[in-house]
Design the sequence.
């Protein structure tokens, strides 16, 4: 039985699997961010708060309306996506003609407002949300005990990510969207309602964040701060993957989750900073990101 | 930042490279008068906090408003200088002016290192590089022994200035801080209203053209980056002596966000803007602290309203109304 | 004893008879009102302080008490500045509560600088009465040493002789790990290893897996608040307890147990200085407290009540607002209140009272929302806290 740097392979496999689970969250979140940036050129700093809202809506659905996890997986993204659309229509759309900076500052301000409001009403302690009965328990994989729910997280994330990628890269709707980003006037001349497409795309990106939030609710406590520190990590993932690349965001999300997991084994204190080190290195060598194209 | 919303009124001021326009001289004198009277009207420690952050915001504005470079990691220079100054005063027994000098020098070196790597990239990528390095600095501050991790460096003594003048009294020290920060702000003004500042402006407005005119654009960018980091460090080091403390809050990315808020609120690219922005934000945090999390909400609202309606910031709007550069 | 009582009665009646000589004191409750410790301190502590003033009948005894409060957001710089402003500008005489070890250390130093009084109830670090002790600091409720002596000792003696620590990577976590390691080893146990997680953390699965791989019988959670709650929840998810390892939550508050629920937390052992259901006195207080705050008091909030009460007794005895004399009086007088029972304050500021080793009830045993713990054993104050001679507090050991 060989040992890699003093760690037995079973432990390593377990950590890799855990890293993959975390990577799922990074992937879904950075996918939403990449969709919004790649197609709309908005740096959506509110993404972390929208992730948090997704978790909260799931909690509210359960505690105020009695709607459980499975419907919440669809409902929460729809609700939060609708809020996102409202934000886009009212505020964000006014900034399209300006520098990226203003979109960033606006969404940063929105994130502060949303987080502050939730903090006021719900405190910071974290609200409990139970794992749905169908997914409780786990499988003994030999090298580790994998909770069913965590396995589900990986499966759900892969499905959603692949589905989104397919839709954007391979369908006609996706083609319209990509065309509209490159040349809105021309596409508009073809009779396609470009502003509406942009709005719906933003809503979709936000919905992805909320979906990640619902996935997170049962395993990370539902609290107003859950998005705050996550957002800069997700940004780093998107930058590393390439800001406009959908596949880049997905692969980098999973990949970085695994790298973070490995760091937790060999140098646990550094697990919070390893992503930034990688980002700095990537930006130095290939600034468009690993999968990005020079704009 | 090629299509930035700079107030048109800012342009005339830039043509004055000899001496300060009269109205700005008056403003500065008035400001000085107010600042001298300030500690007798409010709690001196609060006044000193305002001064330090005003300098920090001015330093940041140097980079953003005049250089056109958005840095997401300015807290790194502010905070590291604060730590080094605190350590120098507490453990090495240095007097305030030496400790502050040492802190500022640290920030300058850090600015040189990070800046030389960051300026290789443009726009949002530049910003992300600065963020990445700021996070690494935060991590360093968290792990290193001398910074004290979560505790920070506490009970930092305020020794006698130049070894001769006792500084324990907050009121006395206020005037030292005033000299430092006001001097710093004037120096920044001098930098921006000079041939160097002119070149910076041209780089900000149209970099390819500046290059075609033969300017070593990267050198100018690096220079302004280092200057900005240095003055941010001066603010941070001074703050460590004011509060007898250096902590992780000073290197956290939310501190970087706050200085952006101050500059945006006050008015990017204006002279007085950052000062006004700092005053508003610090005052708000202090007097509205009893509102708890509502302060975050209010700050967020200011960001939103500021970006949507008052992109020029308070001073920018004022400047436009008065048709004079402020 | 009787003489002291007589003096106090005379003083009390003298004060009552001459209202013109009333003493004014201002108390500042400085704690976390919006963050991770808001439940166990927060507004509840302000209520506790107020209840102490009312129960003592301060007004009737000629002591005018004003209570203010502020949120330090668990940041030492904010705490330090508020403390400084309170002492310098706002005429505050005593600062109460202050959870979060780093903020407590900052406030202790500022209090010493201004020669006021600091009655800490919320912070864990034993350094408040050791390396960072100050003549003006009184450390009520609990500290890392007593937690280690409670849970650490009990679990080791019960057969948990190999440990692995999951530690919050900051001063408090390391202090707790250090103190518990000492106790485990002193009782014949062995520490197989430890892993430090970033503070605050969200996902502990990776660290828990490492703990599992170590094969230690006990996984010591050297963290607090949300970190502990999440560690326990995720350990349950990964079947760690089912697989045979025991979890030792080294710092748990009643509010954490409440959010975990008995289903997840059953069997967990914890050391506490106060539990609402201990006796009639604690029950009476807790009912009143619960009506106002909506939850039973945590040991931190109980400590604020007891500390305020003892302070007011000392003020009454001294007769005027003289901080040094009041602190001396507090250390001279025995502590006696309905919540902590009898105890005393040591020269280094450490309050000595009984600590309780408790266990979380199973869902079947629990009959109400807050009926969560059962008493395993009582640890006397002398046994729980570190002896003063071993503490290294300079001024206390000086003579």
Sequence:
């Amino acid at each position: 039985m060989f040992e890699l740097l003093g760690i037995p392979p079973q432990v390593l496999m377990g950590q890799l699997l855990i890293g993959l689970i975390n990577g799922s969250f990074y992937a879904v979140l950075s996918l939403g961010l990449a969709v919004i940036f790649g197609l709309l050129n908005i740096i959506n700093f509110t993404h972390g708060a929208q992730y948090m809202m997704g978790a909260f809506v799931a909690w509210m659905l359960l505690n105020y309306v009695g709607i459980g996890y499975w419907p919440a997986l669809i409902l929460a993204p729809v609700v939060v996506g609708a809020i996102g659309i409202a934000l886009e229509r009212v505020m964000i759309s006014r900034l399209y003609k300006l520098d990226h900076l203003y979109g960033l500052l606006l969404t940063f301000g929105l994130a502060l407002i949303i987080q502050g409001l939730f903090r006021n009403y719900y405190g910071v302690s974290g609200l409990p949300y139970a794992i749905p009965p169908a997914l409780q328990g786990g499988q003994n994989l030999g090298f580790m005990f994998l909770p069913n729910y965590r396995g589900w997280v990986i499966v759900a994330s892969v499905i959603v990510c692949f589905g989104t990628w397919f839709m954007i890269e391979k369908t006609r709707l996706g083609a319209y969207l990509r065309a509209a980003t490159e040349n809105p006037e021309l596409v508009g001349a073809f009779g396609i309602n470009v502003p509406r497409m942009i709005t719906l795309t933003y809503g979709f990106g936000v919905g992805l964040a909320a979906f990640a939030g619902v996935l997170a609710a049962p395993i990370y406590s539902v609290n107003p701060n859950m998005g705050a520190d996550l957002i800069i990590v997700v940004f780093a993932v998107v930058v590393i993957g390439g800001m406009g690349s959908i596949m880049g965001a997905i692969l980098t999300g999973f990949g970085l989750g695994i790298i973070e997991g490995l760091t937790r084994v060999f140098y646990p204190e550094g697990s919070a900073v390893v992503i930034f080190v990688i980002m700095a290195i990537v930006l130095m060598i290939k600034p468009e990101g690993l999968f990005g194209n020079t704009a | 930042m090629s299509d930035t919303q700079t107030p048109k009124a800012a342009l005339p001021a830039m043509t004055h490279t000899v001496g300060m326009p009269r109205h700005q001289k008056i403003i500065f004198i008035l400001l000085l008068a107010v600042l001298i009277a300030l500690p007798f009207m409010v709690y001196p420690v609060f006044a000193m906090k305002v001064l330090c952050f005003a300098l920090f915001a001015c330093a940041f504005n140097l980079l953003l408003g005049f250089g056109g470079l958005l840095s997401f990691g300015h807290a790194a220079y502010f905070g590291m200088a604060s730590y080094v100054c605190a350590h120098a005063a507490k453990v090495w027994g240095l007097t305030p002016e030496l400790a502050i000098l040492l802190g500022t020098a640290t920030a300058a070196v850090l600015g040189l290192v990070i800046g030389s790597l960051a300026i290789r990239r443009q726009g949002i990528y530049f910003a992300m590089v600065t963020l990445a390095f700021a996070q690494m600095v935060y991590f360093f501050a968290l792990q290193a022994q001398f910074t004290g991790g979560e505790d920070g460096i506490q009970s930092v003594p305020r020794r006698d200035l130049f070894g001769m003048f006792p500084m324990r009294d907050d009121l006395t020290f206020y005037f030292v801080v005033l000299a430092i920060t006001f001097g710093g702000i004037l120096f920044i003004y001098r930098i921006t209203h000079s041939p160097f500042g002119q070149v910076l402006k041209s780089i900000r407005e149209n970099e390819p053209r500046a290059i075609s005119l033969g300017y070593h654009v990267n050198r100018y960018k690096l220079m302004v980056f280092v200057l900005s980091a240095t003055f941010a460090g001066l603010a941070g080091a001074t703050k460590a002596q004011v509060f007898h403390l250096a902590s992780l809050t000073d290197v956290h990315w939310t501190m970087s966000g706050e200085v952006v808020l101050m500059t945006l609120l006050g008015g990017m690219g204006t002279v007085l803007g950052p000062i006004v922005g700092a005053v508003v934000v610090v005052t708000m945090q202090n007097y509205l602290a009893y509102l708890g999390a509502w302060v975050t909400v209010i700050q967020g609202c200011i960001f939103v309203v500021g970006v949507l309606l008052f992109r020029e910031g308070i001073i920018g709007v004022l400047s436009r109304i008065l048709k004079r550069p402020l | 004893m009787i003489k002291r009582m007589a003096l106090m009665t005379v003083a009390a009646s003298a004060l009552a008879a001459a209202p013109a000589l009333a003493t004014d004191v201002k108390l500042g409750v400085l704690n976390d009102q919006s963050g991770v410790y808001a439940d166990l301190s927060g507004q509840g502590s302000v209520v506790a302080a107020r209840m102490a003033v009312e129960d003592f009948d301060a007004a009737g005894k000629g002591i005018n008490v004003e209570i203010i409060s502020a949120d330090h957001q668990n940041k030492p710089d904010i705490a330090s500045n508020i403390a400084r402003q309170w002492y310098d500008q706002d005429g505050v005489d005593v600062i109460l509560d202050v959870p979060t070890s780093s903020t407590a250390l900052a406030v202790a130093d500022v209090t010493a600088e201004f020669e006021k009084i600091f009655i800490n109830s919320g912070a864990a670090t034993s350094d408040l009465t050791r390396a960072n002790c100050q003549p003006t600091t009184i450390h009520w409720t609990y500290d890392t040493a007593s937690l280690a002596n409670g849970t650490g000792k009990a679990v080791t003696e019960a057969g948990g002789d190999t440990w692995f620590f999951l530690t919050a990577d900051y001063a408090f976590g390391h202090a707790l790990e250090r103190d518990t390691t000492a106790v485990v080893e002193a009782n014949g146990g062995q520490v197989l290893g430890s892993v430090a997680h970033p503070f605050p953390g969200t996902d502990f699965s990776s660290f828990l897996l490492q703990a599992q791989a170590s094969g230690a019988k006990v996984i010591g959670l050297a963290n607090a608040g949300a970190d502990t709650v999440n560690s326990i929840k995720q350990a349950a998810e990964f079947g760690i307890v089912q697989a045979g390892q025991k979890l030792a939550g080294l710092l748990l508050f009643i509010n954490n147990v409440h959010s975990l629920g008995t289903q997840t937390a059953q069997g967990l052992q914890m050391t506490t200085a106060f539990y609402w259901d201990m006796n009639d006195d604690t029950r009476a207080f807790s009912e009143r407290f619960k009506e106002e705050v909506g939850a039973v008091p945590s040991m931190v909030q109980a400590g604020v009540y007891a500390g305020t009460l003892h302070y007011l007794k000392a003020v009454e005895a001294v007769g005027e607002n003289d901080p040094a004399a009041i602190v001396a009086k507090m250390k001279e007088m025995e502590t006696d209140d309905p919540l902590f029972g009898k105890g005393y304050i040591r020269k280094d500021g450490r309050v000595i009272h009984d600590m309780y080793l408790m266990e979380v009830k199973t869902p079947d045993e629990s009959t109400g929302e807050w009926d969560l713990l059962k008493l395993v054993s009582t640890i006397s104050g002398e046994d729980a806290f570190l002896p003063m001679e071993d503490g290294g507090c300079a001024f206390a050991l000086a003579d």
Observations:
- The domain at 9-110+137-285 of chain A is CATH 1.10.3470 (ABC transporter involved in vitamin B12 uptake, BtuC).
- Chain A touches chain C at residues 8, 10-11, 14-15, 18-19, 21-22, 119-120, 123-126, 128, 131, 138, 144-145, 147, 149-150, 219-221, 223, 226, 261, 264-265, 268-269, 271-272 (CB under 8 Å).
- The beta strands of chain A are 138-140, 145-147.
- Residues 46 and 110 of chain A are 6 Å apart (CA to CA).
